[in-house]
């Protein structure tokens, strides 16, 4: 899920004949279609091609309005070794996945790139796939619970939900995970493939699990990296971020205390935590300007989700906290070492075509439209108080009221993920704060005997493949060697936090 708190969740439909609420039929024989492949952009490699797949807006009305889903392709490097297509999704919800074959795809082992056409896509409602907009001027950022302002927060949140729903009422209800899964099968058919393989990260794991459940006959190999717990969709997944943040920040606090002579954040982990809490209180009340950007408490909380995994990440965050403290104290916020490194933006050559609030709007459409959220406002008050005490960094934010509390009932129930006939491989970092191990463990149990998990023990990062000790397990599976006989665990090859190699 996306690391950005303003989208809460952190970092993406099918032509099968199943109608809304009807049993899912077996996938039709692929007829293929004459996709008009062309170079995605003059700025992209010539062999990186894009095409448009036309799908029903509402699969219950297949002869009604249609929308466009844009897909991309990097052909298998060795046509003689080609095994099929590998459809990729980066997460979100709300993330573009069109350039994923160029970004994540470039890091895949060569034998995988030799053997698969890498297929990216913008999920429905996102990027170049009929983008939606709620007309949000500043996006949506959930607020920390404050008993004195809670009633106003409820009113503001309800107003935002109503404004969003009234902006594109014809599109918004159909931007859901189940419809995106249906679009995946439409993509499969358009490509002329009997089955497709799938690689999903973060939210992409939930999409992959839903696709596998709805269209079992369309699936070849499935790799789910950094898993969402389908039984927590969606409020529970938002709430579990608070647990992950506490774990990661504790590691960071210990790391920073050991380096107090350099960063001056506190001589003990408790001192570092106290400084952090003080900054949160101050920035919630009065944000500061840093490098031309507004930094409030939610920015600090959002970045805290990244703390803990490596020395480099911790060094960046430690400097960031020092500079924020200086700005809050009215002092120059000079850089003293490494700058805070943001993840590189996914190239988007079509930004002018996409509403500025598209990602936020798609996020809300999916997390509010997939499953029912509690309607009782007082439940949010109680949960925010309780979780704020239990998880001081994020608990009062992740359990606070959200626009989903005022969303209409979903048009169809969320998919119940259960035992699968297809083979599914989960890969998970043991200390991932954004999709904690508890979610992956539950998904592994739900999927049953045809699933396996490759656990990377000791890693705090979000996203395990490629680039870790589980690579060989995933690659062998994709190359046709089958699943491991049992779940596997390996120790991360990267140095531990504070260890050698820093």
From TrEMBL:
- Pfam families, per this entry? Abhydrolase_1, Abhydrolase_4
Instruction: Specify the Peptidase S33 tripeptidyl aminopeptidase-like C-terminal domain's residue ranges.
Output: 397-490
Q: List the GO molecular function terms.
A: hydrolase activity
Q: Where is the AB hydrolase-1 domain?
A: 85-266
What InterPro entries does the record tag this protein with? Answer: AB_hydrolase_1, AB_hydrolase_fold, Pept_S33_TAP-like_C, Serine_prot/Carboxylest_S33
Is Signal set as a keyword in this record? Answer: yes
Alphabetically ordered keywords of this record: Hydrolase, Signal
Q: Tell me the first and last residues of the signal peptide.
A: 1-17
Family assignment?
A: Belongs to the peptidase S33 family.
This protein's name: Alpha/beta fold hydrolase
Origin species, per record, is: Prauserella cavernicola
- According to the entry, what is the taxonomic lineage of the organism? Bacteria, Bacillati, Actinomycetota, Actinomycetes, Pseudonocardiales
